[in-house]
């Protein structure tokens, strides 16, 4: 379920038009990241989920 | 020997019944959580619409922890940052953001319906098992009376 959710988020981001701001939730902080950085983060997360 | 087998069957039926009741309880909790989620999403839509109506430049109070608030000026309500899951939030134009929240509501309601259907099925199983337990109880009672009659 969680894995599917990551996949959905990746698809959502890939469809997102350029120029939209993207943020990464890090604890209480929200850090602005580029689309590539966000996708990279999600792919890593997906790989970790698969390993678990 | 037969008595032991009957007892084992009764224990087994009761255990199955308890397990199903526990599953129903878990589903009930999950449904209640979904109801809270949907209500929060609807509240978010209302709040966003109200903020947009108030417009930029309005003074708002920003909560800092549970007890304090600081003043802030509302800037742009045309762009909303929405959490889309997996720790990612994206900036969306107002209407798109509302649509995204509405989509989440639809998904949550669909899940709620599926859980409710599962609960109905479990209730049917409870009814089935209760019937079996009753029948088994009657059969045991009948057996007991027969044995008493023979002893007399």
Walk me through this protein's architecture:
The complex is a heterodimer of chains A (52) and B (152). Chain A is α+β, with helices and mostly antiparallel strands and 52 residues long. Chain A has helices at 2-15, 35-51; strands at 22-26, 29-33. A two-stranded antiparallel sheet of chain A has the order 1-2. The radius of gyration of chain A is 11 Å and the shape is globular. The two termini of chain A are 13 Å apart. Chain B has helices spanning 2-54, 94-151; strands at 59-64, 68-73, 79-85, 88-93. The A-B interface holds A 5-6, 8-9, 12-13, 16, 20-26, 30, 38, 41-42, 45 and B 79, 81, 83-92. Strand 1 of chain A pairs antiparallel with strand 4 (88-93) of chain B, so a sheet runs across the interface.
**DSSP strand tally of chain A:** 2
Count of helical regions of chain B: 2
The helix/strand class of chain A is alpha+beta
Q: What is the typical, i.e. mean, pLDDT of chain A?
A: 86
Percent range for β-strand residues of chain B: 15-25%
Helix content of chain A: 55-70%
- First-residue to last-residue Cα separation of chain A: 13 Å
Biggest interface: chains and residue counts?
Answer: A-B, 19 and 12 residues
Shape of chain B: rod-shaped
Which helices and strands appear, and what pairs or packs with what?
The complex is a heterodimer of chains A (52) and B (152).
Chain A: H1 2-15, E1 22-26, E2 29-33, H2 35-51
Antiparallel strand pairs in A: 1-2
Helix pairs in contact in A: 1-2
Chain B: H1 2-54, E1 59-64, E2 68-73, E3 79-85, E4 88-93, H2 94-151
Antiparallel strand pairs in B: 1-2, 3-4
